[in-house]
């Protein structure tokens, strides 16, 4: 029983689809996290669920760690095989298997990305709303319970998935849930797998909910004199239960970065990016209601993006906020991103205290967030060669995480636990973390599925 | 180690709040299910989370089964203590602990009923939408993953709960999740407990999401020449993604029963009960769009309930559909209710085949359902003294359950597994049912928490 034995068996079985090439191993050593990478001993490229099951069965027999990988866009090192073993690259399982237009759902393999699914839906009048910054794979998005700019209206991956197929630690293939919109038939294994980051099973198929494209969409940007006014506007919008589809906050530093990176004709002031979905009348109504709130909070520079290209350019710029920050950091600097999420009534306090931390630090940290969910990110710009800067980023991130917990929130709104948030799990969950460990221990007694993530069991 | 020893210790500790009175034992032997009751050996009335923990610790030491009980409105015998032991009556834990108006959430004890919570919200402009037929307890509703008439727009208890406090099998108190609107911090224990029917822990506190009362509400009933036309209208409404708040189907038999029971001035034809929520303009728009669809499907007798009293009378009648069916059955007859839920595109097929089953049977079976979710109930009217009728009801129910699975649905949309749906779990879940059993075995190794429900582990 050994990793070497597993790799040998897998190479015999999968031949060229079990790679030990240096560049392949390096690529699969890490995602977008600031953490140091760890190379796997081999990378497997399965093409079917049965092949994933075969890989897991061989690894189970040889006691070899297995870490799933897809686009590699995770920012908390979920894909880093910290104990070596095999990285299972899911990107060859990239077919849209079925689109059920009448039921508003689609069946996809895990390597399909969110934009690929939306491209496949182009002529149906339907869309898939969950949109993390990266064009992530749907399997990875489910595994990390991802969300994005539409979550305030359409929910996160927790809400978007109807059922899953997954291979569990003994190589069995399970299917959770059905295609009905709801069910009360036993334990919710679908939701248990969502957010489990590959530690309980590898997702091999997803059935996801779709939504009708709204009849009308209008988007806007809205600048504010200060961060507090922008955040107050978000809080009031949510408290009114106004059904905004998107309400995103960018502080002045993030705006400056985005303006430079995406060539936006906007001011570098604290800004909200908004979108309203509905009928013509309801979109107009929502926009008017929001406009009043914003003006009451001294908004300046309301700008409507009416044409589709303008709107797409706006949201492309928003999704590129990470790259914009990276560019603003200059050569050699990396982004260390935080992920606090708090009850909306505490969002102002959380952001302002965090802002004070950044102002008092030598590091720059543009802020951007899904403010309607109470979720925001600080993109700390760090020279990874500088131990001082890395320590400073860590210190600020820790303060933010603890602040989120103190305010009744969570250390991760959407990026997941990975390696980066492990140290906060006890504080966030208390004894419930032990229950998570018990579940892991029983479903993966050898601890071969992405060991070292979410729970500590040996 | 014995039940008798546990009861003795609990009586010493809880005195009058550990009852063995005959009428109390009888009351806690069953809910609204058609299944035979089984009396507990004692009924406990805890008043705090700590007391629930104490009860569980004593029972764990004495290896004594524990079954939670609240309103007793479950229809699948979830509350029946099939292996004796203690019934834990949660109705003294009935406080609304906090209402966070700004965050749109409330913290409640499990014995608070849905109408009590809404009464507490009366002056806030907020409401709690999940509304099963009975005025159930929120703890029970979470434990059975309940839904109701608003689920098509506002979701089920899966969506309504932000976090839980629960006592698990060793007497530990755990808290799952936080008050933030989303989190990616580890396994979703909140969703694991929701729908677990007291088999993994006893819920002692819930934080639930609230919604703003819509600016405008309009309700209507709409009769159709036949079942198919009514169901087609529902299907088209959902496929258009029209944001109806409620869209309920009652067949002609159920309408006749409701007209008689609730003195409704309507015709005994297949009928939809509808409600639209939104701004004045959007409600008008939704109603118009729906009206066109309905007319295209030959709807007759569109009736608007404009005034609040009319609307309340309408939904009261809908919520009383169970009692109306019971009354229509005549003295001595009981309701045996089914709970299929299928993808919306298969709903017509499922209902029409079921209708043919009922027409071919000697039993009456009014039909009513949350058709917008693909969920419907047949309320089979059965003389419990007649073995022939009971067997016939069972035969029809089995056919409906198998049909739902064949059509890609679930045997229970909202009533849960209890005893009634156990026999279908293997067919519905396949190997995933074994994973559920593993989870149960690890979190409740002695099988003391509501044994005999959801999974079979010994």
How many beta-strand elements of chain A?
18
- Please give the largest β-sheet of chain A: 7 strands, antiparallel
Strand content of chain A: 15-25%
Q: How many helices of chain A in DSSP terms?
A: 17
Q: Roughly what percent helix of chain A?
A: 25-40%
What separation lies between the terminal Cα atoms of chain A? 18 Å
Describe this structure in words.
2 copies of one chain form a homodimer. Chain A is an alpha+beta fold and 458 residues long. In chain A, 37% of the residues lie in helices and 19% in strands. Chain A contains 17 helices and 18 strands. Chain A has helices at residues 3-14, 22-27, 49-62, 114-120, 138-143, 151-154, 157-160, 189-193, 227-239, 252-262, 280-296, 308-319, 321-329, 347-359, 387-406, 425-429, 432-443; strands at residues 18-19, 42-44, 66-69, 86-89, 96-100, 105-108, 126-127, 161-167, 173-176, 202-209, 211-212, 216-223, 246-250, 271-278, 300-305, 334-337, 367-370, 375-382. In chain A, the strands form 4 sheets. In chain A, strands 15-12-14-13-17-18-16 form a 7-stranded antiparallel sheet, sandwiched between helices. A 5-stranded antiparallel sheet of chain A has the order 5-6-10-8-9. In chain A, strand 17 (367-370) and strand 18 (375-382) form a beta hairpin. In chain A, helix 1 (3-14) packs antiparallel against helix 3. Chain A is globular and about 65 Å long. The two termini of chain A are 18 Å apart. At the A-B interface, strand 9, helix 8, strand 11, helix 9 and helix 11 of A face strand 9, helix 8, strand 11, helix 9 and helix 11 of B.
């Amino acid at each position: 029983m050994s990793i070497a034995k597993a790799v040998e068996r897998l190479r015999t079985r999968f031949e060229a689809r079990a790679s030990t090439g240096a560049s392949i191993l390096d690529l699969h050593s890490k995602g977008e996290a600031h953490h140091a990478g760890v190379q796997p001993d081999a990378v497997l490229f399965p093409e079917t669920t049965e092949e994933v099951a075969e890989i897991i069965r061989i690894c189970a027999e040889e006691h070899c760690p297995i870490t799933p990988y897809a686009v590699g866009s995770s920012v908390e090192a979920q894909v880093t095989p910290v104990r070596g073993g095999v990285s299972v690259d899911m990107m060859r399982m990239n077919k849209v298997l079925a689109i059920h237009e009448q039921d508003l759902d689609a069946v996809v393999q895990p390597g399909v990305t969110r934009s690929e699914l939306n491209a496949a839906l182009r002529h149906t009048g339907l869309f898939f709303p969950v949109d993390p910054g990266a064009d992530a794979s749907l399997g990875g998005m489910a595994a990390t319970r991802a969300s994005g700019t539409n979550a305030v209206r359409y929910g996160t991956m927790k809400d978007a998935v109807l059922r899953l197929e997954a291979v569990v630690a003994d190589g069995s293939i399970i299917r959770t849930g059905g295609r009905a919109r709801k069910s009360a038939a036993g334990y919710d294994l679908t939701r248990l797998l969502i957010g489990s980051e590959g530690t309980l099973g590898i997702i091999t198929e997803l059935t996801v909910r779709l939504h009708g494209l709204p009849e009308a969409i209008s988007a806007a940007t809205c600048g504010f004199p200060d961060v507090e006014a922008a955040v107050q506007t978000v809080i009031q919008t949510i408290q009114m239960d106004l059904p905004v589809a998107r309400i995103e906050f960018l502080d002045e530093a993030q705006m400056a970065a985005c303006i430079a990176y995406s060539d936006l004709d906007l001011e570098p002031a604290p800004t909200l990016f908004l979108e309203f979905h509905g009928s013509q009348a309801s979109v107009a109504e929502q926009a008017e209601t929001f406009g009043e709130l914003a003006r009451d909070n001294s908004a300046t520079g309301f700008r409507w993006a009416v044409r589709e290209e303008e709107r797409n350019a706006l949201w492309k710029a928003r999704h590129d906020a990470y790259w914009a920050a990276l560019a603003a950091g200059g050569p050699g600097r990396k982004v260390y991103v935080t992920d606090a999420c708090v009850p909306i009534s505490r969002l102002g306090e959380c952001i302002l205290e965090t802002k004070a931390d950044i102002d008092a630090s030598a590091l720059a940290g543009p802020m951007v967030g899904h403010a309607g969910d109470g979720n925001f990110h600080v993109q700390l710009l760090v020279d990874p060669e500088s131990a001082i800067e890395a320590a400073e980023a860590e210190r600020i991130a820790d303060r933010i995480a603890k602040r989120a917990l103190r305010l009744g929130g969570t250390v991760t709104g959407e990026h997941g636990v990975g390696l980066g948030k492990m140290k906060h799990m006890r504080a966030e969950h208390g004894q419930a973390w032990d229950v998570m460990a018990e579940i892991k221990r029983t479903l993966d007694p050898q601890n071969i599925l992405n060991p070292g993530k979410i729970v500590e069991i040996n």
